[in-house]
Amino acid sequence: MLDTLRTLFLTALHAFHRRATVQYPEQKPYLPPRYRGRIILSRDPDGAERCVACNLCAVACPVDCISLQKTEADGRWYPEYFRINFSRCIFCGFCEEACPTYAIQLTPDFEMGEYARPNLVYEKDDLLISGTGKYPDYSFYHVAGIPVPGKDRGASERERPPVDLHSLLP
Amino acid sequence: MTYSAFFTIILTPLVILGLATVLTWVERRLLGLWQDRYGPNRVGPGGMFQAVADGTKILFKQDWIPPFADRGVFILAPAIGMMTVLLSFAVIPVTMGMGIAGDMNVGLLFVLGMMGLGVYAVVLAGWSSNSKYALLGGMRAAAQMISYEVFMGLSLLGVVMMAGSFNLHDIVAAQAGVWFIIPQCLGFGVFMLAGIAQTHRLPFDLPEGENELGAGFHTEYSGMKFGMFFIAEYAGIVLVSSLVTTLYLGGWRGPFLPPAMWFALKTGVMIIFFILLRASLPRPRYDQLMALGWKILLPLSLLNVMATGTILMLRAS
């Protein structure tokens, strides 16, 4: 009997507690930078696409929602098209982990509701952003040993010039 | 029949139905408050029109009668539930002048009779649905009814003895000095428990028991038939609250404020208490409820009747 009254009293006291609800559309919750939301393709500091169409993200993807095709221009690899089907995507972040060039990244944005399912298929235009995302200084071609126009073999950061095998000089 | 009486008869059910509809929103907001969340607060100011939105939605839902159900009884059951509750309001005196038949000489008996008939709604709904969960719910309602109906009547006897009348007007008039909640505190407690059981509200919502019986007696109901059970339940809360107000809290009596306001205030407090009960107490098993009814509350109410009678006899002699 007393227990019951105590329960009633304690419940009534909850009227003066702070409410736990976050009034979502007006009141946005804080999402950390590493939150796994909408996927983007970033650019390097020079403004060129980071993606080298290596297909590792597509391989890593457990639900096979990434589809892309490689093409080449000026000795660099690019995706000819890059397509993510967000109606399949489970936002696991494996693509981001697999990416050798920090090109594919997950962002703290999750508001991507659509009325029609085909609208959830994002093409390269929808995915590509103009910034560098989470890694502002990283540029794959500056550190990779691949010669591209404007950068010869051996001119990368922390890379020595190649050894001339035909020379006898030490 | 005078014009104003006719007007009251038309208006009362409308007011009750409106009140019951709004109560669905009030209850959800209050439960939210006591559970540290908001509840429906989007439709209209503070979510006030949530009830309207829900009502509109449920009106347009398919009203499906299962092919295995007993069609006639299935349709009749929610109507009985609604009707008995609405009819009971006829004898509730809001104030001296307000109310349809507050001066009826067997007013309290009429309410008890209507409440007894109200059980048919639940039992018949459960039975005619012809499904096991609904039947279990209906059976529990019957079991619950035979255990609470007895001590409900007995608990009210103390009030009747003190007022010397079944007339609800006279009962309120008899509370001019002191409200019956003080001399009849035992009866008040017992009647409260019976009232909760009568409206089959939590903690005594055994016929419904949504987590063990699906939805109990109205498992098979959909659309507005379900809506009628729902509204009848909330109207039942209003009914029991206003009965408690009339019988134990001095009805419309109170200083400063106009009588109708006092009645509304007391009834409102009782309704909020009902919702608080729902927010805090778990549901007992139905054998526990029956044991409580027969072994504790029935002797208590008999004791109450005996004590009241003795005191009245001593005072008279």
Topology at a glance:
The complex is a heterodimer of chains A (170) and B (317).
Chain A: H1 2-13, E1 39-41, H2 56-60, E2 66-73, E3 76-85, H3 94-98, E4 104-106, E5 121-122, H4 124-127, H5 140-143
Chain B: H1 3-34, H2 50-59, H3 71-88, H4 107-128, H5 132-163, H6 168-173, H7 185-198, H8 210-213, H9 223-248, H10 259-280, H11 286-316
Describe the model:
Chain A has helices at 2-13, 56-60, 94-98, 124-127, 140-143; strands at residues 39-41, 66-73, 76-85, 104-106, 121-122. Chain A has 170 residues and is of the alpha+beta class. Chain A has a domain at 28-137: Alpha-Beta Plaits (2-Layer Sandwich), CATH 3.30.70. Chain A has a three-stranded antiparallel sheet. Chain A has a two-stranded antiparallel ribbon with strand order 1-4. The longest helix of chain A is centred in the N-terminal third of the chain and has 12 residues, at 2-13. The model of chain A has no long low-confidence stretch (mean pLDDT 90). Chain B is mainly alpha-helical and 317 residues long. Chain B has one domain (65-316). Chain B has eleven helices and no strands. In chain B, helix 1 (3-34) crosses helix 2, helix 1 (3-34) runs parallel beside helix 10 and helix 5 packs antiparallel against helix 7 (185-198). The radius of gyration of chain B is 20 Å and the shape is globular. Chains A and B meet through helix 1 of A and helix 1 and helix 10 of B.
CATH fold node name of the domain at 28-137 in chain A: Alpha-Beta Plaits
Give the low-confidence spans of chain B: none
Largest interface: A-B, 14 and 12 residues
Beta content of chain A? 15-25%
Judged by helices, strands and strand pairing, the structural class of chain B is: mainly alpha
SSE pattern of chain A, N- to C-terminal: HEHEEHEEHH
Average pLDDT of chain B, rounded to a whole number, is 86
Q: Notable features of this structure?
A:
heterodimer; A: 170 residues; alpha+beta; Alpha-Beta Plaits; three-stranded antiparallel beta sheet; two-stranded antiparallel sheet; 5 helices; 5 strands; B: 317 residues; mainly alpha; 68% helix; globular
